[in-house]
Design goal:
- This protein is of the alpha+beta class and 492 residues long.
- It has one domain: FAD/NAD(P)-binding domain (3-Layer(bba) Sandwich), CATH 3.50.50.60.
- The strands form three sheets. Strands 4, 5, 6, 12, 13, 14, 15, 16, 17 and 18 form a ten-stranded mixed beta sheet that branches. Strands 1, 2, 8, 9, 10, 11, 19 and 20 form an eight-stranded mixed beta sheet that branches.
- The radius of gyration is 22 Å and the shape is globular.
- It starts with a strand and ends in a 5-residue tail after the last helix.
- Belongs to the MQO family.
Length: 492
């Protein structure tokens, strides 16, 4: 059935495939690359700017990266790790800007302060202790804390205006945060790939993956959405970057490494306003604290968004449930993914996550008025006529085997690769897009061990901190962050 053999096939037209394809083209320009996307354009699912928060996750404001332990203690390592990863992505983007691959950085990244806002005495105490730990970390240099309403008002007036004067509130702020339009970035990376000879095939569905025993390559069965004649292609390496649909495609591949993995889909909504009078009063991404039982991706936040040069505000997300693995997926996605090998872990997750189930049911039953009340906890002056609901992107959280509990629900991303490295896929959600570059570097190391040593020199040129920890070297951190910000036009 195969009519053509290529070096690399990328399945999915999102930020992950775009990042990996661009890296491979920079490292190994002679390799042939073909990309398959089942929709009529790239970046229409999770990478679409209105389907994600576009935060540029750096743990500057997201409290779920630094949770309070049962004994009340706090630990910075995960927050630092997430920040390190985002700095790697920023350095890679900066190298592409410097080389003319991404000539207009303002079209996909803009300076936007990151804030955390909490209410209540206990939360104020927690935020103060978090600040006291992070202010000494080089990557969090410049973080500020205040429990003074006047100071918080100067940072973000909509958080304070018309609020009860006796309410205990606190906030942190750091000026080096960003807003990222991953849709624009994805489109520009694919434009570069096509200009360098990559073959982008839209409205093309991958229906099956079969390993060729003779040489270890992959036969890929394909079907165009318009037309009835299936066809095939052979690839030496396959990356499944299809968002939530990566799980069923990896299951079709038959690799044993996917056994035990399941997917828990979560949908959601945001409130959005484009009213220029409201938008002009808020210039920040402000994260709060998640409700009990809520998944990390449901942490409430009031965000400045810059898309196509226009600013809007988003608030949410309001979590929901849908069995679809993609926003434009099938209602049968979840039941069709159930296998004997992942049924046990999935049942164990259902048993151990009652609070999550309760939270999701409550969100599903919430009226528009109740959702507006949640917005007013952040922004007391919010008017219903200024805001409208939009549907967020679909997220599929990882469920996998666990030796102690039978199965666990994992909030994060995970690379699944075959033993020979000929196929790999990415499962999971946040902080995904923001950490695409270090994720793909890890994938290259695992899947191309013979070539990786020869690539390290080029990787070092593209990512100056490659192989080192910025946070452990304050001088290097200052130098790298300053240089990157200058190239990406993030300095004020």
């Amino acid at each position: 059935m195969s009519t053509k053999s290529v070096d690399v096939v990328l399945i999915g037209g999102g930020i992950m495939s775009a990042t990996l394809g661009t890296m491979i083209k920079r490292l190994q320009p002679d390799w042939s690359i073909v990309i398959f996307e089942q929709l009529s354009a790239v970046a229409q699912e999770s990478s679409n700017p209105w389907n994600n928060a576009g935060t540029g996750h750096a743990a500057l404001a997201e409290l779920n990266y630094m949770p309070e332990a049962s004994d009340g203690s706090l630990e910075t390592s995960r927050a630092v790790k997430i920040n390190e990863q985002f700095q790697v992505s920023r350095q890679f983007w900066a190298s592409l800007v410097a080389d003319g691959v991404l000539p207009h950085p303002e079209t996909f990244i803009n300076p936007t302060p990151h804030m955390t806002f909490v209410r209540g005495a206990d939360n104020v105490d927690y935020l103060r202790r978090r600040y006291e730990l992070l202010r000494d970390e080089p990557l969090f240099k410049g973080i500020e804390f205040s429990d003074d309403p006047k100071v918080i008002y100067s940072w973000a007036p909509l958080l304070v205006r018309d609020r009860q004067k006796d309410e205990k509130i606190a906030a942190t702020r750091i000026d080096s945060g960003t807003d990222v339009d991953f849709g624009a970035l994805t489109q520009q990376l694919f434009d570069y790939l096509v200009s360098q000879g990559a073959d982008l095939r839209l409205e093309t569905q991958v229906t099956n993956l079969k390993k060729v025993k003779k040489d270890g390559s992959w036969d890929i069965s394909l079907r165009e959405r318009v037309g009835t004649t299936p066809y095939g292609m052979n690839a030496r390496f396959v990356f499944v970057g299809a968002g939530g649909h990566a799980l069923p495609l990896l299951q079709k591949s038959g690799i044993p490494e996917i056994e035990g993995f399941g997917g828990f889909p979560i949908s959601g909504q945001f409130f959005r306003t484009d009213n220029p009078e409201v938008v002009a009063q808020h210039q920040a991404k402000v994260y709060g604290k998640a409700a009990v039982g809520a998944p990390p991706m449901s942490v409430p936040h009031l965000d400045t968004r810059v898309v196509d040069g226009q600013s809007s505000l988003l608030f949410g997300p309001y979590a929901g449930f849908s069995p679809k693995f993609l926003k434009q997926g099938s209602w049968l996605d979840l039941p069709a993914s159930i296998r004997l090998h992942n049924l046990g872990p999935m049942l164990a997750v259902a048993r151990d996550n009652f609070d999550l189930m309760k939270y999701l049911i409550g969100e599903l039953l919430a009226s528009k008025k109740k959702k507006l009340d949640a917005l007013r906890e952040f922004m007391p002056t919010a008017r219903a006529e200024d805001w409208y609901l939009i549907t967020a992107g679909q997220r599929v959280q990882v469920m996998k085997k666990d030796s102690k509990r039978g199965g666990v629900l994992q909030f994060g991303t995970e690379i699944v690769t075959s033993a020979d490295g000929s196929i790999a896929g990415l499962l999971g959600a946040s902080p995904g897009a923001s950490t695409a570059v270090p994720i793909m570097v890890d994938l290259l190391k695992r899947c191309f061990p013979e070539q990786y040593g020869g690539w390290e020199r080029t990787l070092k040129k593209m990512i100056p901190s490659f192989g080192a920890s910025l946070n452990s070297d304050p001088r290097a951190a200052d130098k790298t962050l300053s240089a990157t910000a200058k190239v990406l036009v993030l300095t004020r």
